[in-house]
Write a structure and sequence with these properties.
Layout (H helix, E strand, L loop, with lengths): L1 H4 L23 H11 L7 H14 L2 E7 L18 H8 L2 E7 L5 H10 L23 H7 L3 E7 L18 E5 L12 E6 L6 E7 L12 H16 L4 E6 L29 H26 L6 E7 L29 H4 E7 L8 E3 L3 E2 L3 H8 L14 H4 L10 E6 L5 E6 L2 E5 L6 E5 L15 H11 L14
Helix pairs in contact: 7-8
């Protein structure tokens, strides 16, 4: 039975690297799942037949891969209008799948945006609403916990930022069978870290979360760029997990600046292929970081193809918020916000409208563009429907699977909501094509019609008191109070 269900899962670390004694032992995982399925089979059905049917049903559910960039603007990608930075693999991904033009991050900064993605709760309801070191609450179910319970193997590779080692919200405690990651957001700024965190909670000998020293980056050495390492780990993980449905959350740090290096913060091994360009050095480096990210997306696509997993894998690509002006780079140099106003930390569209590309060959229409309005809170219920399971109660998201499949999306958001708590609390909401922005507690609302003014250049609040009244009424009920994130100056 073992040979008919699964092969051994090799270590997610590349064998050519010195990774020490740690290996990922999950070869018994499919057997344990098979045993559970067998025990649940009705006695009136021959056990072997019923088990085979259930295993076939589990295998038929698609793998889910979510690749998340960090501070990548919607205008930084070729298929969204970028003409200087090369992104051939992302452009191919869009040509083979669906490109969304109205998808929103959970927040204009990292941690709350990722919390929204993981929990299906918008930023007015989730426990993490800013970049302070507050962990996810234990009563918030993550997409990994949901999918793990549904029989998926789950892995986080890259940046977490939702719970440190002294909290109950480290990845291994929040549904991830495998973790190779930064836990701390500030630690993730370092592209040549001396250590990461790793764990494996499945197999005969589970490995608890532990610090893992990267021998090639000790004592200030720059032996290996960590994003290259994450790609090697991810491709090896896919190879090992191929025989059962899996969820891979691949959270790159690219093209985030190393903020500790100030104007040297666009840290990359080489500025190729932009070395000869007459650009400021930070801009060359930023472009190289984005093209390197694109190359790594290509490596994931190639691995799925080589293992014949393309037709049964739904792959999402997005960014956690709008582009930054940090590390010496300026968002306006490459028009990284596209046609939108604002950047990271802004409540305007440039801070929260992000690229979103989805591919599922044979199911998601190829070379399609969708204007469907949706947000990061919708990923969890969409993943639930893909996995034929139920989302947890109390979430704000709705499944976008009909839109993904090119069908009519009958279930729509009435409102989308954001809040932000750096340098005073701010709020924003979208209703249909109307966008309201409040830049200070109890301050007046700005109002924009995104259909005719996507750049939010004309505040029409005075001309539409009825819309302002509707937005004000919604904002009074849009959030729950939080001791960490009061709406205060």
């Amino acid at each position: 039975m073992k040979d008919s269900i699964s092969n051994h899962l090799t270590s997610p670390f590349p064998p050519a690297l010195d990774v020490g004694p740690w290996t990922l032992k999950v070869e018994r995982f499919p057997l344990l799942l098979a045993a559970a399925l067998l025990l649940s089979a009705p006695v009136i059905v021959p056990a072997a037949t019923r088990l085979e049917e259930k295993i076939a049903a589990y295998r038929s559910r698609p793998n889910i891969v979510f690749i998340l960039a960090d501070d990548l603007g919607i205008g930084d990608v070729g298929c969204y209008g970028q003409n200087k930075i090369k992104t051939p693999n992302l452009d191919r991904l869009a040509a083979e799948g669906m490109r969304f033009t109205q998808c929103y991050a959970g927040s204009p900064v990292c941690a709350p945006s990722r919390a929204v993605l993981m929990t299906g709760r918008h930023v007015g309801h989730v426990s993490i609403r800013g970049n302070a070191a507050v962990p996810l609450a234990t009563n918030e179910t993550t997409v990994a916990e949901m999918l793990h319970k549904a029989g998926y193997q789950t892995a986080l590779i890259g940046k977490w930022g939702l719970g440190l080692t002294n909290t109950p919200s480290t990845p291994d405690r929040r549904g991830f069978d495998v973790c190779v990651a930064f836990l701390d957001q500030n630690h993730a700024h370092d592209y040549y870290p001396s250590y990461l965190w790793r764990s494996s909670t499945v197999g005969e000998e589970p490995e608890p979360l532990a610090r893992y020293d990267l021998t090639w980056n000790q004592d200030g050495a720059k032996g290996k760029y960590v994003q290259d390492f994450f790609t090697q780990v991810a491709t090896n993980y896919i190879r090992g997990a191929k025989n059962m449905p899996f969820f891979l959350y691949l959270a790159y740090t690219l093209p985030h600046a190393n903020n500790e290096l100030k104007d040297q913060g666009m840290q990359v091994p080489s500025d190729a292929p932009y070395s000869a360009e007459p650009w400021p050095q930070p801009e060359k480096n930023k472009a190289s970081m984005i093209t390197r990210l694109d190359r790594d997306v290509g490596a994931i696509l190639a691995q799925l193809k080589s293992l014949r997993l393309e037709s049964n894998t739904v792959l999402f690509f997005s960014s956690d918020n709008g582009p930054h002006s940090e590390g010496g780079a300026k968002a306006e140099f490459f028009h990284s916000s596209g046609p939108f106003r604002g950047i990271k930390r802004d409540m305007y569209e440039g801070g929260i409208r992000v690229p979103m590309i989805a591919r599922w060959p044979g199911r998601i229409p190829a070379a399609s563009t969708s204007t469907q309005v949706w947000a990061f809170c919708d990923f969890l219920p969409t993943a639930a429907e893909l996995a034929s399971t139920k989302p947890p109660p109390g979430i704000d998201g709705i499944s976008m699977l009909p839109a993904l499949l090119g069908k009519k999306q009958t279930n729509q958001h009435e409102f989308l909501y954001w809040e932000f708590h750096e340098k005073g609390s701010k709020q924003a909401a979208r209703w249909r094509d109307w966008k309201a922005v409040r830049l200070a507690p109890n301050g007046p609302l700005e109002l924009y019609n995104l259909a005719g003014d996507p750049g939010e250049s004309r505040d029409v609040a005075a001309a539409h008191p009825d819309i302002i009244a509707k937005m004000e009424k919604y904002l009074k009920t849009a959030r729950t109070d939080s001791p960490h994130w009061p709406l205060a100056k």
